[in-house]
Amino acid sequence: MRASSSPEPLPRASGAREPRAPRTPLPVLAAAGVAVAFFALPLVGLLVRTSWSTLVEDITRPESLEALRLSIVCSLGATALSVLFGLPLAWVLARVPFRGRSVARGLVLLPLVLPPVVGGVALLSAFSRRGLVGEHLWDWLGVQLTFTTAGAILAETFVALPFFVLTVEAGLRSMDRRYEEAALSLGASPVVVFRRVTLPLVAPTVLAGAVLAWARALGEFGATITFAGNIVGRTQTLPLAVYLQLEQHPDTAVALSLVLMFVSLAVVVALRDRWLGGSR
Amino acid sequence: MSTTMAARTGLDATIAVTLGPLDLHVSLQVRSGDVVALLGPNGAGKTTLVRALAGLQTIDAGRVELDGVVLDDAGPGPVVHVRAEQRSVGVLFQDRLLFPHLSALDNVAFGPRARGVPRRRADAEARRWLDRVGLADHSSARPGELSGGQQQRVALARALVTEPAMLLLDEPLAALDASTRASVRRDLRGHLGEFEGVTLLVTHDPLDALALADRVVVVEHGRVTQQGSVAEVASHPRTPYVAELFGLNLLPGVGRGTDVVLDAGEPGATPSVVAVGERVEGPVFVLIRAASIQLHRHEPESSARNRFRLHVVGFDLLGEHVRVRLGGELDLVAEVTPAAVAELGLAEGAPVWASVKATDVVVTTR
Q1: Which of B235, B255, B275 is the last residue of a domain?
Q2: Structure pTM?
């Protein structure tokens, strides 16, 4: 007999007490403390270094606002593309057994470990005006991706998509498929089953995947600057602006960094149940 | 819903499925309006059979026909497989599997809506069915807010609202506690009585079969080992599983006057002898009701002619009784009260004497 199970996207750490471990050796504690400090100090440094009196002014400079606007447009665009294409891909990877599935999954994983600059170079070789596909896009449709906002969205999608696909694939795998069978037995076509049963049951995972993808897109630097360049108002997103302002207006760079840090913090807080569950 | 014009000729199925260690090969005929209980131990292939009939499991060989419509035909000849969503089959799953994100009403309306019934009409039908199962007040509740018994009734309404030609119930009462079980069983009996299609009830509880089914089909190791009316199967068990299921001990032996010499369990072992209340000759089954076996701590000085020195192998809780599994020169199952277990100080491995009156032993030919 199978125990009844509610749809649980990812296993969470339980609140159960762990067995009492032997006393932690001092060197281990010390090293762990150093590691925590290593993470905490830069954040503290950022807060200390911030010029609070000119903060509002720094953030509302025209270049800053333009970068902010562009970052929001590009990251949301990349998130939308990730959901649009990532959901079917995750479904296929989770549900359809086919030859080369592991190769396909490897391809999805690659942008996670690939240096973003290399990703940008690779994108250039495919989608630039002289690239594999870009050549035809230009010749036939007059479409150019490099040095455009669309190109920035493409570069961000390249690095964000894996986060979405892997999260949702795991969710689809861990869901109880017997709900889908129940829906089939009630006369629902596979499309209706997906829309009315599968999707609602994995909705929390889809949302988490989208948030992750969005956060990754928002912070994207290497692939974007390599593929789309650094054009104010067109491809210069927040991370690019931070890097460039560091020379001329360091206060602005720090202020914008602060903005990005708080967004990241908000993401971690929003997904804390998923990642930090039970560690209180 | 769509009224099937096809004659209600019932189910005629032969199914063969090989799935891991399971080798299922079963033939089933059920008339419309009849309730057949599918009894069998865990792993016998009951759930696989249900899945195959529902179209969720493809069959390796055989043919399934329901009310004159061929649902599966693995050949020879053209292969037919009607997909699950196109079958007129309602399923009540083991864990109910109500959609957790939908209200009771939306769960019941899911089937009609999936089959293209407009929302308003689907909701009206669902409401009518929720009313029939006595849950009109709970239509907006999510499954998680309902008790086990209530969930079961929603699941039944969901399975019946599409007026299927066949209803498959996979262990419908297994997940319920004892007090809920009785009332749900009673309700189920009423609804099954009104249902005009084929009903197949998978269970491992003979009480469910007794209360709900017209006929019993016993499946063991993927094969039908016995079938017939509940009374027939209960009184003439053909396998040890069936005998134990109905609280009977089934012991094969050979009649010698008013004694039966039991077939030895192991070659070379001294065969046990059971005194019976009649003259018998030839190969027979000895039937002893678990409840007629008495247990004693010391050798009993009762008038019972059959006395065996055994030991306790294990216990099964069975409502208000305890089934004590005994081993030794022969294997027996006795049914006693929990008080008796305590009084006799029975524990696994403990020696115990079992006695049976010869007049309580029933003999049937084999």
Answers
A1: B235
A2: 0.75
Query: Is residue B253 domain-shared with residue B214, that is, in the same domain?
Result: no
Q: What letter would DSSP give residue A126?
A: H
Cα–Cα nearest to B102, from A106, A16, A133, A203: A203
Q: Which ranges of B95-161 does DSSP label H, i.e. alpha helix?
A: 104-114, 119-132, 148-160
**Is the residue at B4 inside a domain?**
no
Span A122-145, pLDDT tens digits: 999 999 888 888 888 888 888 888
Is A279 part of any domain? no
SS3 A255: helix
Residues B216, B31, B92: CA angle, nearest 5 degrees:
65
Mean pLDDT of A173-188: 94
Put simply, the answer to whether A183 touches B110 (Cβ < 8 Å) is yes
N-terminal to C-terminal alpha carbon distance within chain B: 50
Number of domains forming the structure of chain A: 1
Residues B201 and B81 occupy one common structural domain = yes
Whether B133 and B275 share a structural domain: no
ipTM, two decimals = 0.75
Say which CATH number the domain at B331 has: 2.40.50.100
Phi-psi region of B75 (alpha: psi -120 to 50; beta: other; left: phi over 0): left
Q: A189 in contact with B at a CB cutoff of 8 Å? A: yes
Is A147 part of the contact surface with chain B (CB cutoff 8 Å)? no
